[in-house]
Design goal:
Strand content: 15-25%
Pfam families: HTH_1 (PF00126), LysR_substrate (PF03466)
Number of strands: 13
GO molecular function: DNA binding; DNA-binding transcription factor activity
Number of domains: 3
Radius of gyration: 31 Å
CATH class of the largest domain: Alpha Beta
Keywords: DNA-binding, Transcription, Transcription regulation
Organism: Bordetella genomosp. 10
Protein name: LysR family transcriptional regulator
CATH architecture of the largest domain: 3-Layer(aba) Sandwich
Length: 307
């Protein structure tokens, strides 16, 4: 047997609340943009579902005690439903919303500022929170729902829970002071890494592990003297004359005066820029909008750098 509560529709409850508020079937019809017979039909259906009269018909329209009780509860429920539906529609149209972005340190220092500027200019109503982290922590941030989307040098894996969209391979440069003996070269052979004091960024990050494997395969073993996490630390050490550092090519546009980056070759080294999300979890409109801005920004930067 069907539960009467399950059979009651939101339209029936709206009709009852409107009748209660206007004390008139005609007034309720005007409020809801319906015909008076349609309002009467909805009320009769509701009364049939609950098994008793809810509206007293006559020269003056009023509600029974049970009718008033149902109308009072329905009014609060309808207000809550309407509010959440408006919020959902506003999120869909990007009038409101929020997105949490997990960003690896290197991407946060080099790529994120330009993306944030464009995103906030295009979608000023959306609240964006940056979850600054190690690139290898992005997966955990997504799985815990601390972040809605990730950005960084995330390499392809067989992890079925994570969807990785590689946008660009910007390559790797060797950064040094512009008074360094190699600073005038157009390209630098990676074999010199064995001879130079090197500052290594976050050696446990997947992208750096892939680079290390490629160098080892070419029988190249960089002379690492310092290991750091932050780009800013590596830059400070370069400025102090403590060595050179491999960093993604995109970092060149954010370097202070006096430091330059020269592409490495033999072998060519890859630095992927990827957006990452949960594979089987729907993205919010705000997260989709952020991903779209990332794609457009990376595409433009890649075109400007001729890659």
């Amino acid at each position: 047997m069907e539960d009467p509560v399950e059979a009651v529709s939101l339209r029936q409850l709206r009709a009852l609340v409107s009748v209660a508020d206007s004390a008139s079937f005609t007034g309720a019809a005007e409020q809801l943009g319906m015909s008076q017979p349609s309002i009467s039909h909805l009320i009769r259906r509701l009364e049939a579902e609950v098994g008793q009269t809810l509206v007293v018909r006559g020269r003056e329209i009023s509600l029974t005690d049970q009718g008033r009780n149902i109308a009072d509860v329905a009014r609060r429920a309808i207000l809550a439903i309407d509010a959440v539906m408006r919020e959902c529609r506003d999120n869909t149209s990007l009038k409101t919303g929020s997105v949490n972005v997990a960003v690896g340190h290197v991407s946060a220092a080099t790529l994120l500022p330009q993306i944030l500027h464009r995103f906030q200019k295009k979608h000023p109503e959306i609240e964006l929170t940056v979850v600054d982290c190690m690139v290898e922590q992005i997966r955990a941030k997504l799985l815990s729902h601390e972040a809605d989307i990730g950005l960084g040098a995330v390499t392809a894996t067989d992890d079925s829970k994570i969807l990785i969209e590689k946008l660009w391979d910007c390559g790797v440069c060797l950064f040094m002071r512009d008074d360094h003996p190699l600073a005038r070269r157009a390209r630098i052979d990676a074999r010199v890494l064995a001879e130079l004091p090197c500052i290594q960024l976050n050696p446990n990050a997947p992208a750096w592990l892939a680079i290390s494997r490629k160098l080892i395969a070419a029988n190249i073993y960089p002379r690492v003297e310092q290991r750091v996490i932050l780009v800013s630390t590596a830059v400070g050490m370069i400025q102090a004359g403590m060595g050179v550092a491999m960093m993604p090519r995109i970092a060149a546009v954010h370097m202070p005066r006096g430091i330059k980056g020269i592409p490495l070759c033999n072998p060519e080294l890859e630095w992927p820029i990827s957006v990452v999300r949960l594979a089987n979890y729907p993205q919010s409109p705000a997260a989709q909008a952020f991903a779209a801005v990332v794609r457009a920004t990376v595409r433009e930067i890649g075109a400007a750098q001729g890659t």
